[in-house]
Automatic annotation (TrEMBL):
GO cellular component: cytosol
Reactions mediated catalytically: XMP + L-glutamine + ATP + H2O = GMP + L-glutamate + AMP + diphosphate + 2 H(+)
NCBIfam families: guaA_Cterm (TIGR00884), guaA_Nterm (TIGR00888), PRK00074.1 (NF000848)
EC number of the protein: 6.3.5.2
Subunit field text: Homodimer.
Top EC class for this record: ligase
The protein's role, per its UniProt record: Catalyzes the synthesis of GMP from XMP.
Protein name: GMP synthase [glutamine-hydrolyzing]
InterPro entries referenced in this protein's UniProt entry, alphabetically: Class_I_gatase-like, GATASE, GMP_synth_C, GMP_synth_GATase, GMP_synthase, GMPS_ATP_PPase_dom, NAD/GMP_synthase, Rossmann-like_a/b/a_fold
Keywords in alphabetical order: ATP-binding, Glutamine amidotransferase, GMP biosynthesis, Ligase, Nucleotide-binding, Purine biosynthesis
Length: 530
């Protein structure tokens, strides 16, 4: 069994980052709502507990508190921001409603030599004080420590910026060690989980594979499993993992709606069916999708049709596999955390079927979600450890409706064929062009962008080629850089690269005589054009 750290979520935007940092330190950690029961805390078996930040104020009546069992469990506790304030309040200190919010960069002075900060600092002042460069984001602050606590750090604005009761191993920091702006954040969290909680670094992918394989076998026994394989990272890694566990008892269904990238079907079949020996049913449903999309130009209507037909095809195919008892999905941990009912006792309602666009319950299958404990970067590491190619695992995301939202207006097969080829040229050039060819560690423009693709514009413009006039379609190129896909910047691709892509598309894809580059950010534009 792994040692594990329990993170109680008080609603901060960055709670997930705490779990990721702890896992980066090689220690398994899970996020649960702050109002889990005392029973839950007692039975969980945490080696340490972290209380996250949150938007509430402990100075107001009915705001979140940690279960008292947290402080009675006999394990180290680390409070962060709101977590520090609730710890102070619950253990007999005082919190004052701050008149001025403190938001952003701050330098805190470490005081006393606590186990949490010992020898961790960014610089030392001329008087010999260790200083930390940190990220603050709070209104309230602790103005009286609970009995037994001593001062661990302070700033001018926030005299009690961190405190500790080292006997009970309770630590609390007003700043956010989980964000990268806090330069020593990783070192502090690593110190907490390793030295203070005593956890080993036992969270690694090779071990995880054998555990996950054993747990899948235990879960499904001799039953058969079906999985909708999309070629995306999550479903691909889930397929490879389940196949490792149960081999031939897994059948994947790969639905080609005719709106996939160039050679996607071939690539998926080669990878899974030929290389890994996974049973894959390849359904070419192009005609069915194109038939239903004919004459429809409204983006939302198109999305609905594609989603509906997808379910239809999947249902027909899975209906043929009469022995299947399980439906496998590539649900990952952020989906699980986000769909957990916040603030409701013990509720962890899971967003089912999110990957295959709402498969109806009439399938009568039990859900198998072997990635539900993993963050995206862990899913990628797992994929590589399972032998999937790096180029597949680190691909840009591709939307479920595929080229259907990249062909503006009515979708036609001929448009999809042109777009696929233009898109492939763009991606090939991004992969082949290095951001800095002289850099020690080369990075391609593909890896330097978060998502890049071509969009088909169903308008014709006039051009000349050779001696003749042309009157053909336009393709727009889109490349963005983003952390979370909620906001995005357009990528400043080099002009030579754009020029080369434009030349190649116009020369190689007959039917397109003009290429434009999209220089809109999100907001106000979205990443996809529809
Ligand atoms: P937007 O266009 O909203 O896209 O800025 C944000 C991210 O979401 C992806 N996207 C989708 N993914 N089904 C999906 O599976 C969809 O209908 C869909 N629409 C947008 C988009 O590719 C981008 O990564």
């Amino acid at each position: 069994m792994h040692s594990k750290i329990l993170i109680l979520d008080f609603g901060s935007q960055v709670t997930q980052l705490i779990a990721r940092r702890v896992r980066d330190a090689g220690v398994f950690s899970e996020v649960h709502p702050y109002d889990v029961s005392d029973e839950f805390i007692k039975n969980y078996g945490a080696a340490g507990i972290i209380l996250s930040g949150g938007p509430s104020s402990v100075t107001e009546g009915d705001t979140p508190r940690a279960p008292m069992a947290v402080y009675e469990a006999g394990v180290p506790v680390l409070g962060i921001c709101y977590g520090m304030q609730t710890m102070a309040e619950q253990l007999g200190g005082k919190v004052e409603n701050g008149l001025v919010r403190e938001f952003g960069y701050a330098e805190v002075r470490a005081r006393g030599h606590t186990a949490l900060f010992k020898e961790i600092n960014d610089f030392v002042t001329s008087e010999g004080h260790g200083m930390l460069k940190v990220w603050m984001s709070h209104g309230d602050k602790v103005n009286e420590m609970p009995p037994g606590f001593k001062l661990m750090a302070s700033t001018d604005n926030c005299p009690i910026a961190a405190m500790a009761d080292e006997e009970r191993r309770f630590y609390a920091v007003q700043f956010h060690p989980e964000v990268t702006h806090t330069l020593q954040g990783e070192a502090i969290l690593s110190r907490f989980v390793h030295e203070i909680c005593g956890c080993q670094s036992d969270w690694n992918m090779p071990d995880y594979i054998s555990e996950a394989v054993a747990s899948i076998r235990a879960q499904v026994g001799d039953d058969e499993v079906i999985l909708g394989l999309s070629g995306g990272v999550d479903s691909s890694v889930a397929a490879a993992l389940i196949h490792r566990a149960i081999g031939d008892k897994l059948t994947c269904v790969f639905v080609d709606h005719g709106l996939l990238r160039l050679d996607e079907g071939k690539m998926v079949m080669e990878m899974f069916a030929n290389n890994l020996g996974v049973k894959v049913i390849h359904v070419d449903a192009t005609a069915q999708f194109m038939g239903h999309l004919a004459g429809v130009s409204d983006p939302e209507a198109k999305r609905k049709i594609i989603g509906r037909e997808f379910v239809e095809v999947f249902q027909v195919e899975s209906g043929k596999l009469s022995n299947a008892k399980w439906l496998a999905q590539g649900t990952i941990y952020p989906d699980v955390i986000e769909s957990a009912g916040k603030g409701k006792k013990g509720s962890h309602t899971i967003k089912s079927h999110h990957n295959v666009g709402g498969l109806p319950d009439t399938l009568n299958l039990k859900l198998l979600e072997p990635l539900r404990e993993l963050f995206k970067d862990e899913v990628r590491k797992l994929g590589v450890a399972l032998g999937l190619p790096h180029s597949m695992i680190y691909r840009h995301p591709f939307p479920g409706p595929g080229l259907g939202v990249r062909i503006l207006g009515e979708v036609k097969k001929e448009f999809a064929d042109l777009l696929r080829r233009a898109d492939a040229i763009f991606i090939e050039e991004l992969r082949n062009t290095m951001v800095d060819p002289n850099a020690e560690k080369l990075q391609s423009w593909y890896d330097a962008t978060s998502q890049a693709f071509a969009v088909f514009l169903p308008v014709k413009s006039v051009g000349v080629m050779g001696d003749g006039r042309t009157y053909e379609y336009v393709v727009a190129l889109r490349a963005v850089q983003t952390q979370d896909f909620m906001t995005a910047h357009w990528a400043h691709l080099p002009h030579e690269l754009l020029g080369k892509v434009s030349n190649r598309i116009i020369n190689e894809v007959r039917g397109i005589n003009r290429v434009v580059y999209d220089i809109s950010g999100k907001p106000p534009a979205t990443i996809e054009w529809e």
